[in-house]
Each structure stands twice: as structure tokens, then as C-alpha cells.
Amino acid sequence: MYKVLIATEKPFAAPAVKGIKEVFDAANVESILLEKYTTKDELLQAVAAVDAIIIRSDIIDKEVLDAAKQLKIVVRAGAGYDNVALDAATANQVCVMNTPGQNSNAVAELVFGLLVYAKRNFYNGSAGTELLGKKLGIHAFGNVGRNVARIAKGFGMEVYAYDAYCPASVILEAGVIPVESAEVLYNTCGIISLHIPATAETKNSINFALLNTMPKGAILINTARKEVIDENGILQMMDQRPDFKYLTDIKPAIDSTLIEQYATRYFSSSKKMGAQTAEANINAGIAAAKQIVDFLLHGNEKYKVNN
Ligand code: 3PG
Question: Which domain, by its residues, includes 11?
């Protein structure tokens, strides 16, 4: 009997866990739950005898992969797989998959939760401004970016997008204005929503020089990854541009005391919250479970992201 570990430091909602277990029960696959673990040792022990793992932002590095002697597949229930050591997985003949699109609406909705909070001055009682007619720049037009565009149109915003890998025709078809570079996006739009993945190329790429070209009253929303941000550049913006606001659902890496002084313009949640809805947990969790069953029982490698 195959064994699957559901390893979630930040647990799925209960209905998602129930749905995942049902998928495995129906396929006669044993499922083991490891939630809210606090040490890497717990994870290392839990992976020792399993054939498959479902994770969220949990770190699957070489040490974890080496400890998982029977492992055949890891599925990241979500979009970004920068938390998995792909080369080590390939070397150990472990298939890595994600579940693209399954949690993208949840992340896109949170963008607007953060954005309205910013536009209404963190609900401090002073008069804010509205989204209607404002220019929104979507940086990367993948599943989340497309959902952000859809919702932005409901707010009556003027929507622009830049994506180095997405043809302008696809952006145009979605009723969004494509621009030719990140520089043009940032200096055209007073609001930017970030949706680039964390890669060697994007790491620290959102820096002071780029941000400082944004128009007065600039707002940056980051529901992507902290690694893509140059956090010192954000601090420099906070210092030199009192009109600038930064809101993110990802805990920054920098010392929190440095941020406290900007509490009226800098917001970050303590846990990554974008995909943390019952619906997104159910969609991504059950998709991950089905992909594992399909892979273990039928060899289906759709959504494989490593070589
Ligand atoms: C993703 O890449 O899918 C999101 O960042 C969600 O991450 P989470 O599963 O840790 O909430």
C-alpha cells in the first residue's frame, strides 16, 4: 500500500483535509497528516517511509529528499515551487509537481483586500481615495495576474500588465493594456501588484531604482514572494518617499523593528495569507491528491516541473 504524507506547517482548512483523505481512501492509499510542525526533525522523521508528499510553502531541501528513501513524488499544493530543491529531487528520481491555478482567485481577492486598506489609509479615519479610474499595473500575467485583472475591471480601474513570457496578444485579449517593460509599467501606474515567481533572475529585482519611478502616491502590493523584493530598497522608498505604501501578505526577512516606524504605510501579515481560504485549500489540496494517485497508479506526469 502506498503511503502519502500531508506535511503542512500552515494547515489546510478541515474540509480540504477531509477531501484529500477521501481521494486517497478511494484509491487505497494511506494518508498521514503532519500539521503545524515546529522543527525540521519532525519533517525528516515523517518523510522516512512515504512514497509521496503533499506540501504548501514547506521547505523540501536536499536533506529532506535524502531522508525520504522511498519518495517518488512531491506535489506542491499551490503555484510556486521555489521551496523545493528541484535538482536534488531530479537526482533522487523524485517527480515534483505543482497545482497551477487552483488557488489563484484567493490570492487575487487578497490583493484587493490589501489595496482598499492602503487606499483608505489603513482605516485610520482620514479621507482616503478610490480605485475607480486608477491605473493598476500587474507585474506578470499568469493565473493570479489574470484574476487580478478580472477583479480590477469590476472596480473600474485602468489595467496595465507586463510579462516577459506572455505574448502581448494574450494580455490584450483579456482587455488589459500590455506594456513593453517593467520600467514602463512602474512609471505609468500608481499601483503595482506583483505576481512574478522567485527565480534566480527575479531575486531582489524590485529595487529602489525601479520603485522610485512610480508616480506620487505609489502603492506596491506583494502577494508573490519576499525574495523578489530588495527589502533594503523598500526601506529606502519608505524613507525617501513619504507618499509610498507597501503591503504584503509575506513576512519580510528584515528586522521588524526597522519596519515599525513606518506602521502607517507598511503592512505585512505574519503568515502568508493569499491562498489561505477554504476554497483554495480544497481546490489545491484535492488537485494535489488526485495528481499523486494518478502518478502512483497510472504514471501520469502532467504538471511535473523538474527534469
Ligand atoms: C502559492 O505559491 O501557491 C502561494 O504562495 C500559496 O502558498 P501557501 O500554500 O503557503 O499559502
Answer: 3-102+277-298
